[in-house]
């Protein structure tokens, strides 16, 4: 959803970033997001201890723009960290080329829980 909003905003802001470059960046973000989702998979768990939270994206405050949950049982953490870093780099580069920066409102960090054998995010701490 945020990618779609970003794309609409980019296309509505002529002169800030060439449309082709913005479209390439949005395409890269979508590809990276799909790769991250593939690495996370179904996030299976037997108990809460197996669930972890990772920040994704960078907001105007420098905090994660959103959070995702994964299971350490079934996720290659090193590969996930690498993809998240790549996603964050592309997103931050795109944001730095845009004017003006969004207001600084960081989302609260959610809590990971294990429900019905899957890691899920619940409300903030």
Q: How does this model look, in words?
A:
This protein has 125 residues and is of the alpha+beta class. The protein has one domain (2-124). The protein has 3 helices and 4 strands, in the order H-H-E-E-H-E-E. The chain has helices at residues 2-12, 19-40, 77-96, and strands spanning 51-56, 66-71, 110-115, 118-124. The strands form 2 sheets. A two-stranded antiparallel sheet has the order 1-2. It has a two-stranded antiparallel ribbon with strand order 3-4. A hairpin with a 2-residue loop joins strand 3 (110-115) and strand 4. It is globular, with a radius of gyration of 16 Å.
Annotation keywords:
20% strand; alpha+beta; 125 residues; 4 strands
Query: How many structural domains?
Result: 1
Class based on secondary structure composition and strand pairing:
alpha+beta
Mean pLDDT: 82
- The neighbouring-strand order within the major sheet is 1-2
Specify the overall morphology.
Answer: globular
What's the number of extended β-strand segments? Answer: 4
What radius of gyration results from the CA coordinates? 16 Å
Any low-confidence stretches, pLDDT <50, length ≥5? 1-17
Q: Given the structure, what is the number of helices?
A: 3
